[in-house]
Amino acid sequence: MNVQLKVFAGLKQFLKPEMSLELSDSLKVSELLENLVSSYPDAAVVIKHSLVAVNDVMVAKEYSIKDGDTVLILPPIGGG
Predict the structure, then answer these.
(1) Residue 28's domain is classified under what CATH number?
(2) In this structure, is residue 80 part of a structural domain?
(3) Which residues in the chain belong to E strands, given as ranges?
(4) pLDDT tens-digit readout, 26-53
(5) Which residues, at least 6 apart from 72, have a Cβ–Cβ distance to it below 8 Å?
């Protein structure tokens, strides 16, 4: 199964802004995030606090990702 992954803001220092992922099985968002934390441990804190959208719709961590989906990882934004 092929999934497009896009990351924004602070995550760009750890991951490529856009990646194509080849996954063997359907995954839940939470499982994808766990895999990313394992692969990019320096980004763990940011990934764990990020929101996720699939095909431009915000989803819960239990959402099942499907073939052809575009997953957006949106880290928290600070400011003031």
Answers:
(1) 3.10.20.30
(2) no
(3) 2-7, 18-22, 27-28, 51-54, 57-59, 64-65, 70-74
(4) 899 999 999 999 999 999 999 999 999 9
(5) 6, 7, 8, 52, 53, 54, 56
